[in-house]
Design a protein that fits this description.
This is Large ribosomal subunit protein uL4m. This protein is 32% helix and 11% strand. The chain is of the alpha/beta class. The protein starts with 24 loop residues before the first helix and ends in a 15-residue tail after the last helix.
């Protein structure tokens, strides 16, 4: 699975499954404990479910420096390996933002061709009314592409949630999931120091660092600027495509706790996970994405 999506060279960050991001770490841990109570009975009565664990390491030195061990939720990190759900998520992320702007002109929209090229009869030629007819070289198109055309659609929340759990399970089982106590423990902002850490710990060529929010340690930002295969992403942008694209997924401890809280919240919410999204319901929101930009007409494409 490591090289399954190695040919893709871009990342699209999209996450609708989120709750309030203004909580501190204490409230996150307390709410996470409440959500875990819902699955305790199921875990206690099932002898085949083993609670997964992961080392918590630090970035203060090049060699491995494990400082703690953390228990992971089996509903998230021991999900059934449904590769079909993972494929549906990746295909959705690659297709739903595509937009075809090609518009082929018809005979009526082509310039010129207003005069009849030759008389209707007594020439031995076919009856033609305009040189812009589809049979001519520079004529219009009879059944051409009429853009803009979009392939936009939304997957149900259940498919996106389970696909995310499948991707996280695969990363943890393959030992490609790293938990860091805090990214601020990175002592140097040199790219060589971070590259040495990745080589000594066998992280692979590409690494994705995920933080709790958009505020990331300055040393980590500086070190990854000159490393094209190292990327930083806030938790609200985590998605299946990004997880499978990079060789190693590095999560901070706070990001891990908030990730488990959000996924368990949506797994146990009262609203259905099979809600059908219609384009007309979110059309106004999409069209108003550039309302806060400097140029409302030519807003950045998201």
């Amino acid at each position: 699975m490591r090289h399954l999506f190695s040919k893709f060279h871009f990342v699209f960050n999209f996450s609708k499954l989120s709750i309030s991001t203004t909580r501190n770490s204490g409230s996150v841990e307390s709410s996470l404990q409440k959500l875990e109570q819902l699955s305790l009975a199921k875990l206690a009565n099932n002898p085949y479910i083993v609670t997964p664990e992961a080392w918590v390491t630090t970035l203060s030195k090049v060699e491995h420096d494990n400082v703690d061990i953390i228990r992971l939720n089996p509903d998230i990190f021991r999900h059934a390996p449904r590769l079909d759900l993972l494929h549906r998520n990746v295909t959705w992320q690659l297709n739903y933002r595509n937009l075809q702007l090609t518009k082929q002109l018809t005979r009526a929209e082509m310039p010129g061709g207003g005069k009849k090229p030759w008389p209707q009869k007594k020439t031995g030629r076919a009856h033609v009314g305009s040189i812009r007819s589809p049979q001519f070289i520079r004529g219009g198109f009879a059944h051409g592409v009429r853009g803009p055309k979009t392939w936009f659609y939304m997957l149900p929340d259940a498919i996106r949630l389970k696909g995310l759990c499948v991707a996280l399970t695969i990363k943890h089982i393959q030992n490609d999931l790293v938990i860091v106590d805090d990214f601020s423990t990175l002592e140097s902002d040199s790219k060589d120091f971070l590259n040495d850490i990745a080589e000594s710990r066998n992280w692979g060529y590409s690494v994705l660092f995920v933080e709790e929010n958009a505020e990331v340690a300055a040393n980590l930002v500086k070190a990854t600027e000159d490393l094209p295969s190292f990327n930083i992403m806030p938790l609200y942008g985590l998605n299946c495509f990004s997880i499978m694209k990079y060789d190693t997924l590095v999560l901070s401890k706070k990001a891990l706790l908030k990730l488990e809280e959000r996924i368990l919240f949506h797994f146990n919410r009262s609203e259905t996970l099979l809600k059908k999204y219609k384009y007309k319901d979110i059309k106004e929101k999409i069209l108003n994405e550039g309302s806060d930009e400097n140029n409302e007409k030519y807003a950045p494409f998201i």
